[in-house]
Amino acid sequence: MTESGIEQINEEAKPGISDVLSSHLLGGKKKHDEDKNVEYEEVQHLEKGADYLTTLLLQQGVKDTKTKSKKTPPKLDELKKIFVQNLIKSGYVTLGENNRTILTDMGKRFLDKQTKNAAMKVELAKLKNLKYRKSLERKSKYLAKKRMKRTTKKR
């Protein structure tokens, strides 16, 4: 019995045959390429190929079309509303009279924790800055002594 086109396609779609076909077409590198890191040279090679294709299409008369997205990004007021809605969902604030936000106990604890973390980060940055300035002072004193020794030896 002869196979129809649908039966042929179904037969080709079997996993064993398609894997053999794809590994043959891709030179057996499919699995390797999935795990491989992209190197700088490979990125350059791909960019050259993209430039070549773009040039080819432009020469054929295909024009570059710019599409506008249908959905515009939210404005500042909308972002503020989304931010407040997220705070309400997470339970940090509630809405009171006249739609004013009221900080909940959980929100107060969270805010205190964030403030404490920020204060620790600022303190750490100050200490690192102080350590850096001290090392610069030591280095400049050392270089000054070294210059003094050189100038006294030359005399």
Give a structural overview.
This protein has 155 residues and is mainly alpha-helical. It folds into 2 domains: 55 residues, no CATH class; 78 residues. The chain contains 6 helices and 2 strands. It has a two-stranded antiparallel sheet. The longest helix is centred in the C-terminal third of the chain and has 50 residues. The protein is flat, with a radius of gyration of 33 Å.
Label this structure with key terms:
flat, 155 residues, 2 strands, 6 helices
In brief, what are we looking at here?
The protein is mostly helical.
Q: Mean pLDDT across all residues, rounded?
A: 79
Q: Which structural category fits the helices and strands?
A: mainly alpha
Number of β-strand runs: 2
- End-to-end separation in angstroms reads 109 Å
Overall geometry comes to flat
Indicate the proportion of strand residues.
Answer: under 5%
Write the layout of secondary structure elements.
Blueprint: H1 5-12, H2 15-25, H3 30-35, H4 40-59, H5 76-90, E1 93-95, E2 101-103, H6 105-154
Antiparallel strand pairs: 1-2
